[in-house]
From TrEMBL:
Residues 28-472 form the Aldehyde dehydrogenase domain. GO terms for molecular function: oxidoreductase activity, acting on the aldehyde or oxo group of donors, NAD or NADP as acceptor. It comes from Rhodoferax sediminis. This is NADP-dependent glyceraldehyde-3-phosphate dehydrogenase. Keywords: Oxidoreductase. PANTHER family: SUCCINATE-SEMIALDEHYDE DEHYDROGENASE, MITOCHONDRIAL (PTHR43353:SF5). The keyword Oxidoreductase applies. Belongs to the aldehyde dehydrogenase family. The keyword Iron-sulfur does not apply. It comes from the Bacteria.
Length: 481
């Protein structure tokens, strides 16, 4: 709820949009900087959140819902006024196309508005008195305490706010750490955070996560860990919280979503959806299709068509009209793509479109890799980039077995036309993943639908309504009739 002066170290933010020089070196543009805070500042941020919550007695957790909603509406009004600056910061900092950066901003505003509306009627809020066996209960949803929110670099605004906004609306106080890439875009919102919410309700910490996050968790003062990021980081962080205190977790984690293409699939539609599913935002979506499993009778034609479609994608700078493939966030990511391709080639796969560098060192040409087999990196690792791994199957049980034996369980797509065959697949699949998409790519939205995952892919469910539930508990005030 206040600005603090900063006299310490600052980190320069370099855009991933960078030039390769004639001598092979890479020139990156500086687009801003942020303070590198440490444990002392994270202690202060946490203390502010704890004090604003004040064991449930604070102004925010006891504020009537209508007043909390008014604060959030004030915040959204101020946020909308900053649209252009925030959109440009997303584009320059993570290399997302201008069109997709605009979509991310607009979707986030729509999400906040929808969440506010959902709160008004959540779990029948309006008629919340219930009578049973002589007891009258006033049922309420009550907050959980201090929530630590962290979003990922690929949706830095949208997926940070996917937890932060419902957590606030339910009366919790928040500490949030912007993602490693996608940090500057929060600057234009700082004034709005300060003016829309009471002091200490929302606290931002700019710092290396590895330094401050375990430290904050070890204090035992965090009630809920809300992270959309990697499974490995989530496992590590959960262990930092003292065993003597209970920690709730709302997690959106790794995924390796597969598409199963049945022998009678409509290939035009299938290729179109698989292309979008695998390569939108360079394949950097947790919901992306990361393995295409095609019936052997179709695989040659499927490869011919998808390779052609991949070859026609426009590769370029994020502000170019109709661009599909844009720079990755750093050279470590292009290096990983090359490593995965080399590994597959060494183990017998063909790389149908050659991946490789370009005039911008972080631009990576998309590649179709076939046949991907067990033992290759691409078989199980989440590539999170512009690679399209393809496998062929003879018996649909093999495709099903791939999904069943995976450590991940977010979504699957099934392409086909025979309702009997599709029907027989859907029941086992929906017990393995949380969403089965019929003749369409995997995706998170529309945001009113549950977004969840089994196994290593998630903990808890996010959606407009489910997120409000995740950050609250159903409580009651009871009296005898
Ligand atoms: O990166 C993970 C996101 O939840 C993907 O969302 O399917 O709307 O692109 P999306």
């Amino acid at each position: 709820g206040e600005f603090r002066a900063w006299g310490g170290e600052c980190k320069t933010v370099l855009s991933p949009i960078c030039e390769r020089q004639a001598d092979g070196s890479v020139r990156q543009m500086e687009i801003g900087s942020y303070p590198v805070m440490g444990e002392a500042e994270s202690d202060a941020a946490l203390a502010a959140a704890v004090s604003a919550y004040d064991s449930g007695r604070g102004e925010w957790p006891t504020m009537p819902v209508a007043k909390r909603i008014a604060c959030m509406q004030d915040f959204v009004r101020q946020m909308v006024a900053q649209r252009q600056e925030i959109v440009h910061l997303i584009m320059w900092e993570i290399g997302k196309s201008l069109a997709d950066s605009q979509k991310e901003f607009d979707r986030t505003v729509e999400y906040i508005v929808a969440t506010i509306e959902a709160l008004r009627t959540l779990d029948n809020n309006a008629s919340r008195f219930e009578i049973a066996e002589g007891t009258i209960g006033q049922i309420r949803r009550t907050p959980l305490g201090v929530v630590l929110c962290m979003g990922p670099y690929n949706y830095p605004l949208n997926e940070t706010f996917a937890t932060l906004i419902p957590a606030l609306l339910m009366g919790n106080t928040v500490v949030f750490k912007p993602p490693q890439y996608g940090t500057l875009l929060f600057w234009p919102l700082m004034q709005a955070f300060c003016s829309a919410f009471p002091r200490g309700v929302i606290n931002t910490i700019y710092a290396p996560g590895a330094v401050v996050v375990p430290h904050m968790l070890a204090s035992g003062k965090i009630g809920v860990l809300a992270l959309i990021g990697s499974s490995k980081v989530a496992d590590y962080l959960k262990k930092q919280h003292p065993k003597s205190h209970r920690l709730r977790a709302v997690l959106g984690l790794d995924a390796k979503n597969a598409a199963i293409v049945l022998p009678d699939a409509d290939l035009d539609l299938t290729v179109r959806e698989c292309l979008l599913g695998a390569l939108s935002f360079n394949g950097q979506r947790c919901t992306a299709l990361k393995m295409l499993i095609v019936h052997r009778s179709l695989v040659d034609e499927f490869l011919r068509r998808i390779t052609k479609a991949v070859g026609q994608l426009k590769i370029g700078m994020p502000w170019e009209q109709g661009v599909s493939i844009t720079p990755l966030p750093g050279l470590h990511r292009t290096a990983y793509m090359t490593e995965a391709i080399e590994d597959a080639k060494a183990k017998g796969a063909q790389v149908v479109n050659q991946g490789g560098g370009a005039y911008c060192a972080t631009l990576y040409y998309p590649a179709v890799v076939y046949p991907v087999k067990e033992g290759m990196k691409l078989y199980r690792e989440e590539q999170f980039g512009p690679l399209v791994p393809v496998m062929a199957y003879d018996d649909v049980e093999e495709a099903l077995e791939y999904v069943i034996s995976s450590d991940h369980g977010q979504q699957v797509s099934v392409f086909g036309n025979d309702p009997v065959q599709i029907g027989a697949l859907v029941d086992p699949l929906v017990n393995q993943v949380c969403r089965v998409n019929l003749n369409c790519q995997c995706q998170r939205g529309p945001d009113v639908f549950p977004f969840a995952g089994r196994k290593d892919s998630a903990e808890g469910t996010l959606s407009v309504n489910d997120a409000l539930r995740a950050f609250s508990i159903r409580s009651m005030v009871a009296a005898r009739q």
